[in-house]
Design a protein that fits this description.
about 270 residues; alpha+beta; Jelly Rolls; 6-stranded antiparallel beta sheet; 3-stranded antiparallel beta sheet; globular; binds 2-oxoglutaric acid; binds fe (ii) ion
């Protein structure tokens, strides 16, 4: 379902339909109409890379190819931050969760990630459960051969997976984290074989964004044409009023141990 942001604001029946679709399928697609902002993000990221200043990236263990996953660049590039707090996106998220969104992490991609299917809820969780969303925005027309984003509609309803579920210990070092994560990925592969889910790869054009709900499985296919870029930004959101925001990679519920999560959130000035 691709939704029109103007209708959402003016038509309660349309909004309710969108909410129902999101609850059932775990995602929504819409579009921001701000090419100027997107062009600015692309330009500033390129300038930043050219400047050869250090860029903060995800740890190596979460890279599946050489292209950097640039994290938290909203702290340096205002347009990245502006996209994260885009008024329409915030309105939509607030409508979907009936709580105020807390944008807290940005990742900017130059190329496809080739990351296997996973749920972000294995990285970012809340108590009570489920107060997590990701917003993935295409910063150019996404080419089929660039390793586009894929999702698994309906997988948002699968049970949450924890270290407890997998019988894994809290990691003591990076190697343990990688081993645990590989076991998690294998578990998800099995889930995909057992259940009758389909992988959906939406065609996303510049300015289109896809909101994914906490537990939906998503990932990115192989980059078939290595020359192709896949400029995109994902922003993660928690929601206000949770008792805990924690890191499941370091959590064992049965031992009452919760991984710390410093939200370091992006302030929304008009809230
Ligand atoms: O953009 C992609 O290929 C997937 C990225 C992703 O899943 C994430 O950052 O959580
Ligand atoms: Fe993800």
């Amino acid at each position: 379902m691709k939704i029109n942001l103007n209708n959402i604001k003016n038509d309660k029946v349309y909004l309710d339909k969108a909410i129902k679709f999101y609850e059932d399928n775990g995602y929504l697609i819409s579009s921001i109409n701000d090419n100027k902002l997107i062009d600015d993000i692309n330009l500033k990221i390129q300038n930043h890379l050219n400047s050869k200043r250090d860029i903060k990236t995800n740890p190596k263990i979460f890279h599946y190819n050489e292209s950097p996953r640039i994290v938290e660049i909203w702290k340096e590039i205002d347009s990245v931050k502006k996209l994260a707090i885009n008024e329409d996106v915030i309105f939509l998220l607030k409508s979907l969760y009936s709580r105020k969104p807390i944008p807290f992490s940005t990742i900017n991609f130059l190329k496809g990630t080739e990351q296997p299917l996973h749920s972000d809820y294995f990285h970012f969780a809340t108590k009570p459960d489920g107060y997590l969303a990701g917003v993935w925005t295409a910063l150019e027309d996404i080419d089929e051969s660039s390793g586009p984003l894929s999702i698994v509609p309906g997988s948002n309803k699968l049970p949450y997976v924890w270290l407890d579920t997998l019988g894994l210990d809290i990691p003591k070092n990076k190697k343990d984290i990688k081993n645990n994560y590989t076991k998690y990925e294998e578990y998800i592969k099995k889930v995909m074989l057992d259940k009758k889910f389909e992988i959906y790869t939406p065609k996303l054009m510049k300015g289109d964004f896809l909101i994914w709900s906490a537990n939906i499985l998503h990932g990115a296919g192989e980059i078939k044409d290595k020359s192709k870029s896949r400029l995109s930004q994902v922003t993660h959101y928690h929601f206000e009023g949770c008792e805990k925001y924690f890191n499941p990679l370091f959590t064992r519920h049965d031992q009452n141990k919760y991984g710390d999560r410093d939200l370091n959130s992006i302030k929304i000035p008009y809230e």
